[in-house]
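Late entry, flavin mononucleotide complex.
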Amino acid sequence: MLERRSVRRYEREPITPEQMDFIYEAIRNTPTSYNGQQFSVIDIDDQAIKESLYSLTGQKQIKTCNRFLVFCIDYYKITMGAEAKGVEMPEFPKTADGVIVGVVDAALAMMSTIVAAESLGLGTCPIGYARTAAPDEISHLLELPKGVFVVCGLAIGVPREQPDLKPKQPHDLMFFHNKYSTENVTARVLAYDKIIKEYNATRSGHKTDNDWVTHMLGYYTEAMNYNILAALENQGLGVTR
Ligand SMILES: Cc1cc2nc3c(=O)[nH]c(=O)nc-3n(C[C@H](O)[C@H](O)[C@H](O)COP(=O)(O)O)c2cc1C
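Prediction complete; structure with ligand written out below:
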């Protein structure tokens, strides 16, 4: 995990069925809230579907990777169980915690996949645009029933590149001892900002003069245009309380 980086270029070589079985087993054993396993994974190897997802998201890795896994919140399965037993399903998927539970479970399942894939020497890249770029179109394309919502995609393939490791926040900015401390946070943020600016100016491949803070704010500003609440509601989830 200390050598993990997002890999965006892949060999044509396929992932073997044995490797996929190993990844599936790692996913199945993911810890989940209440052991409810409030997630499902759509494993896509159909090139036509990958191309459609590429045209909806603009993320090239989706069409060049060997497998594209889509991690979804899933309350459809338990709803079917409740219906079959004649028990009323609480409106938990329409609460903030219901959404958080599903997002955490799906995200942990994605991380299980990343760890398992790394251990096999495979490369991965999460694709958040699978959620944000065109949520309604992607739900339709993947035929998601109500109660199912895309959290993130993950491209997996045999690596064709080994990008530089990105410098992450240093210990004194990321970890706190026993309690949160706001002391010196600003100075530490600015020190990290400088590290990233230097990294972006000198890294191999595409160099930029981006710093960290303004670059992140640019992403957040762009993300203000996503209407994820409406997309959640269209899939039978949401945040009523
Ligand atoms: C939830 C999530 C969504 C992401 N979405 C995308 C994406 O849509 N496209 C992309 O190229 N990288 C995406 N990434 C990869 C990040 O850009 C990458 O993890 C980050 O720059 C740190 O680099 P590293 O993974 O090499 O350490 C995503 C990562 C995460 C965790």
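The chain has eleven helices and four strands. Will revisit in the morning.
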